[in-house]
C-alpha cells in the first residue's frame, strides 16, 4: 500500500518499508519505522534524490547543487564577503571555506582582500567561473523543470513557501525549553 508521499507502507502504522534505490534482491528493502512520519527524514531523502539527479544530469560530481548555489550567489553579489555568502547559502563558514578553496584552485572565483578590512575577502567570479556557471544554470533549469513536473505548477509556490518557513523558523529556533 503506497502513501501519498509515494513511499510504500505496510498495513502496520509506523512500519514503512523503503526499497533501496537499486533494489534487486528481496532483502534490499529496509523498514524505516517511525522515520516514515518525520518531516526531516523526508526532507533529507528528497534532497539526496534531487542532488543525485542533478549530479547525473551534470555528469561531474564536483559540480554539485551546492557549487551552483555558491557560484550563483557570487555572480549576483559581486564583491560579497565570505560571511555574507555563508549567511545567504545557509552554511557555516567552516564548511563554506573548503568549498571556496576548491573553487579558487579550479580558477572559478577570485578572493581579494578588502583594503578597508584586511581580514575580509571580496569574492567574484572569474571568466572561467562565469562559463561554468552558465553550463550549470542550464542543467539547474532542466533539473528544476523535472521537479516542477513532480510537484506540479499549482503546488510549487506552496512547497517553496513551506520550505522557506521551515528554514526561517528553524534558523530562529533556540531549542525546546
UniProtKB/TrEMBL annotation:
SUPFAM superfamilies: Winged helix' DNA-binding domain. Residues 36-168 form the HTH marR-type domain. It comes from Vineibacter terrae. It holds the Pfam family MarR. GO terms for biological process: response to stress. SMART domains: HTH_MARR (SM00347). GO terms for molecular function: DNA-binding transcription factor activity. InterPro entries: HTH_MarR-typ (IPR000835), MarR/SlyA-like (IPR039422), WH-like_DNA-bd_sf (IPR036388), WH_DNA-bd_sf (IPR036390). PANTHER family: MARR FAMILY REGULATORY PROTEIN, TRANSCRIPTIONAL REGULATOR, MARR FAMILY. This is MarR family transcriptional regulator. It comes from the Bacteria.
Amino acid at each position: 500500500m503506497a502513501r501519498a508521499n509515494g513511499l510504500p507502507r505496510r498495513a502496520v502504522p509506523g512500519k514503512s518499508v523503503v526499497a533501496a534505490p537499486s533494489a534487486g534482491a528481496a532483502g534490499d528493502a529496509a523498514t524505516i519505522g517511525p522515520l516514515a512520519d518525520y518531516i526531516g527524514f523526508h526532507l533529507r531523502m528528497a534532497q539526496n534524490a534531487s542532488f543525485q539527479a542533478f549530479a547525473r544530469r551534470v555528469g561531474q560530481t564536483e559540480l554539485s547543487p551546492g557549487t551552483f548555489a555558491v557560484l550563483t550567489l557570487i555572480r549576483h553579489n559581486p564583491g560579497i564577503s565570505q560571511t555574507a555568502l555563508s549567511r545567504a547559502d545557509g552554511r557555516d563558514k567552516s564548511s563554506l571555506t573548503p568549498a571556496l578553496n576548491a573553487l579558487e584552485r579550479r580558477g572559478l572565483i577570485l578572493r581579494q582582500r578588502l583594503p578597508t578590512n584586511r581580514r575580509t575577502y571580496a569574492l567574484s567570479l572569474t571568466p572561467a567561473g562565469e562559463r561554468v556557471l552558465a553550463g550549470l544554470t542550464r542543467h539547474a533549469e532542466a533539473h528544476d523543470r523535472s521537479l516542477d513536473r513532480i510537484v506540479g505548477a499549482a503546488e510549487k509556490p506552496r512547497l517553496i513557501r513551506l520550505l522557506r518557513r521551515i528554514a526561517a523558523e528553524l534558523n530562529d529556533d533556540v531549542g525546546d525549553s
